[in-house]
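Appendix B. Extra example for self-study. Work through it before the problem class; the solution is given directly after the inputs so you can check yourself.
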Amino acid sequence: MLDQSKNNLSQQMYEFAKKIFPFPRSLTGDGVRQTLQAIKELLPDLKIHEIPTGTKVFDWEVPKEWNIKDAYVINSDGLKVIDWHKNNLHVVSYSIPIDTTVTLKELKEHLHSLPDQPDAIPYFTSYYRPTWGFCMAHREYQKLRDGNYRVVINSQLEPGHLTYGDLIIPGREKKEILLSTYICHPSMANNECSGPVVTTFLCRWILNQKKRRYTYRLVFVPETIGAIAYISRNLDALRQRVKAGFILTCVGDDRAYSLMPARKSGVLPERVARHVLALVLKVPYTKYTFLERGSDERQYCAPGVDLPVVSIMRSKYGTYPEYHTSLDDLALISPDGLYGGFLATKTAIEVIEVNETFKSTVVCEPWFSKRGLRAPLLGGTTLTPWSALVSNVMAYSDGEYDLLAIAETIGCSIFDVAEVAATLKQNGLLERVRECTPKPR
Amino acid sequence: MLDQSKNNLSQQMYEFAKKIFPFPRSLTGDGVRQTLQAIKELLPDLKIHEIPTGTKVFDWEVPKEWNIKDAYVINSDGLKVIDWHKNNLHVVSYSIPIDTTVTLKELKEHLHSLPDQPDAIPYFTSYYRPTWGFCMAHREYQKLRDGNYRVVINSQLEPGHLTYGDLIIPGREKKEILLSTYICHPSMANNECSGPVVTTFLCRWILNQKKRRYTYRLVFVPETIGAIAYISRNLDALRQRVKAGFILTCVGDDRAYSLMPARKSGVLPERVARHVLALVLKVPYTKYTFLERGSDERQYCAPGVDLPVVSIMRSKYGTYPEYHTSLDDLALISPDGLYGGFLATKTAIEVIEVNETFKSTVVCEPWFSKRGLRAPLLGGTTLTPWSALVSNVMAYSDGEYDLLAIAETIGCSIFDVAEVAATLKQNGLLERVRECTPKPR
Amino acid sequence: MLDQSKNNLSQQMYEFAKKIFPFPRSLTGDGVRQTLQAIKELLPDLKIHEIPTGTKVFDWEVPKEWNIKDAYVINSDGLKVIDWHKNNLHVVSYSIPIDTTVTLKELKEHLHSLPDQPDAIPYFTSYYRPTWGFCMAHREYQKLRDGNYRVVINSQLEPGHLTYGDLIIPGREKKEILLSTYICHPSMANNECSGPVVTTFLCRWILNQKKRRYTYRLVFVPETIGAIAYISRNLDALRQRVKAGFILTCVGDDRAYSLMPARKSGVLPERVARHVLALVLKVPYTKYTFLERGSDERQYCAPGVDLPVVSIMRSKYGTYPEYHTSLDDLALISPDGLYGGFLATKTAIEVIEVNETFKSTVVCEPWFSKRGLRAPLLGGTTLTPWSALVSNVMAYSDGEYDLLAIAETIGCSIFDVAEVAATLKQNGLLERVRECTPKPR
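Solution. Structure tokens for the complete assembly:
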């Protein structure tokens, strides 16, 4: 666990998270652009797209662009009791501009705090309802005294654009593996700097691979409206090409692994994710149901889209106490946490790349010993584990079980199975067959 | 639970049970006619049919008609030790006429009692074997002293008719919901006055509905031979039209709920019955297997008929100690018990009426908030329960899940799902699709 | 359990095991021929085949023939410390001829013993790697002192033949039941005299049956190469005709029952074997998985062959401490053990012979009482067990359930079901339909 490259990578990811953490992201605006620019420094081929406000995307329409330069509340003593520059969660996202003086009572109608978490600034948005508001720690809220308050939000909510980025990395096959993440949350770390950070580094890793069987589609969008806009522009390609997809979200802390399945059960990425967690990484994890969804699987798995898309997360959104507050900060995530998130989806990709379906070229068992494929125990019906694996991979390679199904049947890692299968193929004992969807067993 | 209409209905059903309880029912004869006449007073459109003795019905033949006016046994002191007028269970049903004097020993060859239930008069029949017999409480049986006994059964067993009733209530669709019950048991309450009583009041409730999607077929027949005769006259219609059927039997006591499935598992009324009991009424129930069948599902589910027919019962026949004895009397059933039986099948009907299959008219999630379909929590990824339901109904409406399958997936009542689906349809977000049989999940 | 015929048969099998136990079997050679000759004395129609060394059989080639006349090791005192005549396990099977003098150190490189089982001579082979070796009890091994040892193996390893036997016993149908066993193990009793012994007596029992529905294919081959050679000569016939197959191995001790399924789950002989063990013999058993295979199912179930072949064993190979040592001797098996092995597969054959699919000739239930098929309980909805069985067999005979599926649904022996079905057929209530594969339930 201490190999240098892992440490390097973990640290690089954490540093990148620190870099993008403070940007004032929202559904739209310069915070999103700033984030995409930072990603583009690491992924120069990233394409950045702008969709004008008012564009129809399926049932929705691209909203006005929101930008903010400053926001604060000053009490009658001239003290700034809320200062957006200290934490961008202080302002309700998409707040309309305001510059006025109000009583405490009037102010409180626009304040949000969490009595049960008195030190946490909550995260609130008001994307589709024009209003303004501030969020603050309840402990600070309780200190507010009667009097007049100057309230300033120097924001713009005007026709502009929705910004997103994507990148296609070609492979030998046209079939695609989709990685999608979102870039609309302001200063929170697990949800959601971790998503674009890990996706960026996964993309760099993919680009570094010399051989790529599948084509990769990387998508950095604002959640919901961004995903919908993206799907509306790419629906046919997505439906024809996506073999498996992963939404990268909540991949930064080091407390848990979580699996969100697709709407339709048993799809390839779900099989792969379960295999990775249980038999490759061998970590405990919580399997949620699609009823507990909350991210862009809501769009990718919706009727009419129906892509096989899952999420392998660390602590799932909505399940940890710091979620959607200022406590979800850089101390909550860690280099190890990010690396675990990176490793899970990277391994899932490797599983899909390596998964093939083979068929025996011989009838009956092959003569393993002639080829040195059977540990030459003198006598001995007890096979070495490797010989047993050779025998099992051969026995199940009937053109119906893919390597993943064979590994699941045996209860071992697909990488061990694939290595054996490669040896058997080199020996002319297996031939690759057109992939087929294995029947449920 | 104390609303007036429920109380009224419960009482009306109980009074009607009291009214028909004493009629001397058997497979055939005036007791059956009397019962059907009483039902017809409540259901004027009921059609009463007579099938002549000797008519071939599939493998069977309609038996002679049996009627009885009186029956008794007098001991040598001139005392009536058995008197049919006191309880019509005293005579073995279909006993041939007799008027003779016998010794105690001879008499005992024709007496039936239950040593383990000394106060219960058992219920015996001898439909297809010409003999005579009396049933009595074992406590009375033990009091019989040596001597001669005058034995009189003033019965008739002669060519006549088998009598049954039916009623078709048309709906918008030709597909039918079948309700069948039997009218051949003499004075017993749970098994079997409760069946025709609850069926009669279900029929009145159906007639009161302003909108009926399905056509309803109500059948009041003597058990077994009556059901066979009915099926023989209506086989093609039944096989073409019956979408779901329910046999109403043992629906009068208040001690249990029971489910008898159809021969083929997973048919619509079974899915519906389980949903009603578990997720609508939320009552515990015993699920029996088809091996424990005992009523007219033996005919409706037989090879060559194979209708989807189940029974939602209270205490199932054969499982409660008073079954088929004089202890199954009007004290065993109750207004509440009858109402529970009524409610279960009524609710099942409502489920089938409301169950439809919808498909999203939009790609991706719709813009709920634009339409006020999302509780406008400021910020807030936590949805209200209603918003979550809206989201889930939309997410699963892919033209394959019917509303019942959606409700089962969510674990809530189909009526909540249907209400939300109606709202979504009004908003143009769902369209009805031709019903399809959902795949097992 | 003490009926004479069973005792006779058990004793005859045990005596035959004693007879063939000492023959020096190996993959090839006169020990195999001697064994087949002994079987042919009991099965005169057995055909014995010889395949020349070097013949290609799928991926393999028939090896040289190995014969041995004597082998021993003499110490410097002139004492025979190992003598093949005392136990033919002392020589590694397929040892090349040798006649030399070696030091103790050199000798030990060719000695095999089991420190954990100091009294057991282990069983070793070196079929495809030319070498020589001796096996001995570790207790004896430890007594060897420094000095020179004369080593003699008077063996021949030369072009010759592989010998096997087979027998086809015709039945009314061309579809076959395959029984296969192996004849290549030297003096060990459970694994593997029991296999050919029980198979021989099963064959005699089959020949004694006056009516045979299926054709029987009996195969006596050396394990692995023999099975592969046999399949290579008969592949088309096997694939077209084998309805169910059983490998007879480890059927001699009396400590356990074991089931090895086929590679594909749920095939007929697996259903049958489970039924036999659970509902006919009512014995506990261990169900292994195909990953734990180790006998000729490796060939019969291989991709490209894929026959429905299972094994019903007593103590499975590899699972009992005496396995593949001199402790697997005639004291380990017993007449009762052999009889249990015989009975399990014999019963499985009887199940397959009796299993048919019937369809009701009537619509609705038949009029059982008219035909005396319903116990004439006066009144009585409680059926006798026999009447209940009659009713259930009739209810499930819809042309889709075979008798085995009906028996499994009811939870009773297929023989009870078949007896009832025969009665119903005689009464014209059931007709046989073309067999269909029942859907999994």
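Self-check: Chain C has a mean pLDDT of 95. If your reasoning did not lead you there, revisit section 3.
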